[in-house]
Design goal:
binds flavin-adenine dinucleotide, 5-stranded antiparallel beta sheet, alpha+beta, 273 residues, globular
Length: 273
């Protein structure tokens, strides 16, 4: 939709060209959310397009993904066989309740910075122990872990003018297996619960990023394969019913129970016997 309240549009080619940040400015990435509803509080958009932060780089330390890399590119990427956990991108992108138009234009940085509770990428990033590099036109860069980044629904630790530059995924987690689970009323409805599970067959260490049922994703880790008792215990501690979303689509109790069911499903996917 047209944004009638916009007064200016800036398309810098370097971060240094961005003038002093004002509270009614917004970074523009794929624009799929920004142009999907009125933005009366936004007076200027600062486009990230010319920065061309679309890289996908692999080295022995892991994978680095530029914040403006599109979701479509991530879904289509052929990842090295030694890093099966990266196949989680296919699951996370297939779990979006969005059309191919959104998937083609939306960026990974846009998805994470928009910080919807239903973000399908956020639980995967948490499970993969991702860290994000944050830039500011005037200040030094800083790194923040995925679990600390999103603090609520459309709330992150980003300060005015800060921009997500890249996402780093460490190699030691990428060698593990992944299972991505989604629960929703329909494929086209936003998810009620999302679970990204990572499993190390050598040590049986298992960890989960759980999203959609809470305002911000949670991280649940087991140093060894969890039995039902341990699973339940950690769930009650890290994802209590009081922290789960309750709305017209599902109650908090139901969401918490279904988070457990999806975690169990992921465990069965790793050890079908
Ligand atoms: C119909 C529809 C259905 C959707 N369903 C889902 C769904 O089921 N699950 C899901 O996860 N998402 C869903 N989305 C959200 C979709 O994933 C987002 O629109 C998309 O991820 C936003 O990406 P974008 O690159 O287009 O960001 P934009 O729309 O350009 O920006 C979104 C926000 O992020 C900020 N931003 C963008 N990039 C950066 C950056 N690098 N640094 C700092 N701030 C930044 C912008 O300032 C803005 O506030 C849906 C969207 C639509 C329109």
């Amino acid at each position: 939709m047209d944004l009638h309240t916009l007064e200016a549009y800036l398309q810098p080619s370097t971060l240094q060209q961005v003038p002093d940040w004002q509270s009614d400015w917004q970074w523009l990435a794929g624009g799929t959310w920004l142009f999907s509803e009125p933005q009366p509080q936004v007076k200027q958009l600062v486009d990230l397009a010319l920065f061309d932060w679309t890289e996908i780089e692999e080295d022995e330390r892991g994978v680095t993904i530029g914040a403006t890399c599109s979701l479509a590119k991530l879904a289509e990427q052929s990842w090295p066989a030694k890093w099966p956990a990266l196949l989680g991108f296919q699951g996370a992108i297939a779990a979006l309740a969005a059309s191919f138009k959104v998937v083609n234009m939306a960026t990974i940085g846009g998805n994470l910075c928009l910080a919807l509770s239903i973000s399908t990428l956020a639980p995967l990033m948490v499970a993969l122990e991702a860290i994000y590099e944050i830039w500011h036109p005037k200040n030094s860069p800083r790194w923040v872990s995925a679990i600390d980044f999103q603090t609520g629904v459309q709330q992150t630790i980003l300060q005015p003018g800060e921009v997500m530059r890249r996402i780093f995924l460490p190699a030691e987690v990428l060698t593990r297996q992944v299972s991505y689970q989604r629960l929703g009323q329909h494929a086209s409805d936003p998810a009620l619960v999302l679970v990204a599970a990572i499993y190390d067959p050598t040590t049986t260490q298992t960890q989960f990023g759980v999203g959609a049922c809470t305002p911000a994703p949670r991280f649940i880790q087991f140093s060894q394969w969890p039995d039902q008792f341990k699973l339940e215990e950690q769930l009650q501690q890290i994802l209590p019913v009081a922290d789960c979303i309750s709305d017209f689509r599902a109650g908090a109790d139901y969401r918490q129970q279904m988070a457990k069911v999806l975690m169990q499903r992921a465990l069965r996917a790793f050890q079908p016997d």
